[in-house]
Amino acid sequence: MTNRFTFALLAAASLLVAGCRQDMHDAPRYEAYEANATFPDGRASRSAPVGTVARGLLRDDEALYTGRVAGQLVEQFPFAIAHADLARGQQRYNIYCTPCHGKLGDGNGMVVQRGLRQAASYHQDRLRQEKTGYFYDVITNGFGAMQGYAEQIPVRDRWLIVAYVRALQLSQHASVNDVPADRRADLDAPPASTERH
Fold first, then answer.
1. How high is the pLDDT of residue 197?
2. What is the pLDDT of residue 97?
3. How far apart are CA 147 and CA 130, in angstroms?
4. CB-based burial label for 54 (10 Å; 0-12, 13-18, 19+)
5. pTM
6. Could you read off the pLDDT of 51-69 as tens digits, one per residue?
7. Burial 61-97 (b: 16+ CB within 10 A, else e)
8. For the chain, which end, N or C, has fewer CB atoms within 10 Å of the first or last residue's CB respectively?
9. Cα–Cα distance, 179 to 170 (Å, whole number)
10. Domain segments of the chain as ranges
11. Among 1.25.40, 3.40.1440, 1.10.150, 1.10.760, what is the CATH number of 62-94+121-171?
12. Strand (E) or helix (H) holding 2
């Protein structure tokens, strides 16, 4: 009889203990906007201290993040552009821009060839004379039928695309005088063979 009584007592105790279980998802806490008597204003939700900046959101370089300074479009890049940066800009351009603007930047991309609206050519005088910040602003916020790409393309990559667009513009409107004197002989050289043996 004692074994049965002991077993029943253990079973009842284990049921009680299981009923007292508290998981992490059910931890004691205040829900958003719940009242809280701990603070004088009675709110559980607390405001961030004055001067707090969310991590990664300090946009202290206006030119870098907006393409503007004091509301005016910038003419220069906010950082130096190296050869590797142009290669990255070309890669990003090929991914995001060629469907509409084409490989040459002439506005004759694949979607245009399939009947959609003609994209702007970067080689028109108006865009060749436009400030660098203008291109960054358009990539970021969009223009006309073009959507903004701020969500898809990081800030630095947007600037690298702008650098590549400027290289495209120069490539279509350069003269012999734009080539360094020590490299002009290369202009008459036959193109290097791309065949593999």
1. 52
2. 97
3. 20
4. exposed
5. 0.68
6. 887 777 778 899 999 999 9
7. eebbbbbbeeeebbeebbeebeeebbebbbebbeebb
8. C
9. 11
10. 62-94+121-171
11. 1.10.760
12. helix 2-19
